Amino acid sequence: MMDNEQDSIGMIEWFRASTSYINAHRGKVFVVQLSGEALADKNLSNVIYDLTLLHSLGVKLVLVHGARPQISAALASDAKDSSFHRNIRITEADCIETVTRVVGGESAKLEALFSMGIGNSPMQGSDVRLCRGNFVTAKPAGIHDGIDYQYTGKVRKIRAPAIQQQLEQNNIVLLSNLGYSLTGEIFNLSAEEVAVEAAVALQAEKLILMVPRPGVLDDDGNLIASLSGDDARFYADKLSKLDEESQCISRALDTCLRAYSNKVHRSHLISFKENGALIRELFTRQGNGTLISSDSFENLRVATIEDVAGILNLIRPLEENGSLVERSRELLETEIDNFKIVELEDTVIACAALYPIGEDFAEVACIAIDNSFQKNGYGGRLLSSLESQAKAAGIKKIFVLTTVASHWFLGKGFLEVELSDLPEQKQKLYNYQRKSKALLKVL
Fold it and tell me: What would the pLDDT profile of 401-421 be if each residue is shown by its tens digit?
């Protein structure tokens, strides 16, 4: 098969696999925060293309941009002092005009990039309209530790109904780090705070923070695909003590946690440097960022007929490498009541099944976890759930036949046994070519 034909088949398979994500995201509100560093990065045009693609697929977008490095450079150019306290800029009276000019310029640049998306980009023919307005009401940050923050402000209110009206008209809403007081003053805000408050006020499905790394990395440099709230707090504290880029991720995690505590329970950290990272995170099973979600360790449930396609996608690679016995769609539909799944972001990421055999035995089968979530404890949680189910049904012994996972089951209290120790019905069906090991656990 020619390389271009293989590429075409790969693209077709990806497009088919993305359908469930497209359906899940359509009509939902996503708040996306772009830092000043993201606006200055050479990959910005690709990020804009991907945001335009989201918009064309029916996602309702609210973009929030900052301009911290651009403001610092402009103030330095104007020979104006700019100091920080608790990592927040103190905006003096003679600086607010520069801040306003710089932020307005960055907003205009974003509008220009989205306009270019209509005629001179892969999104040619799309209808993209950005709107700006006085959607953010602000108040002075006040005096802290004896320091007056002057024209640095806090969000007083997000005008959610006005934003929703624009979203319903199929517009992308663009917010900046500027807010306006009830007395007509302009305040310099934190873009992160604007993003959080907007996500909360709009009851957004997702808060997305574009950051300089792929997301949160473990000690070996591997991407952590998902974090619970507690784990996110652990990494936020740990990274806050490291280098500047790590501190940036720490601040992003703090932002996610503020959203999390206000019922926005799905936040993503995604690299603004990596081409296509946003699309891979939102439309592929493997993802390409870190998700902070209340679903991470909670959504374990009994499978239904609607989950058959997701289970098949999950177990197919394991069937192909011989780790699992192949199951047809028809067989899986018949046996679906035996399955439990873990669902994340409307996608099946782990499954397992329990098959009662007689009054005393049950077989544990088809344990599968998505490669991106192997270290999150889903296999153990599924097994514990199946054991509880078996006990409740009066089953005294559970067993498993496995070719590759015997050590894992031994660590869960199973013991290796002879084939003759299994129910006679299972002995007759044993596949001697697979040479599976038999392990049994007394409940």
Answer: 998 888 999 988 999 999 999
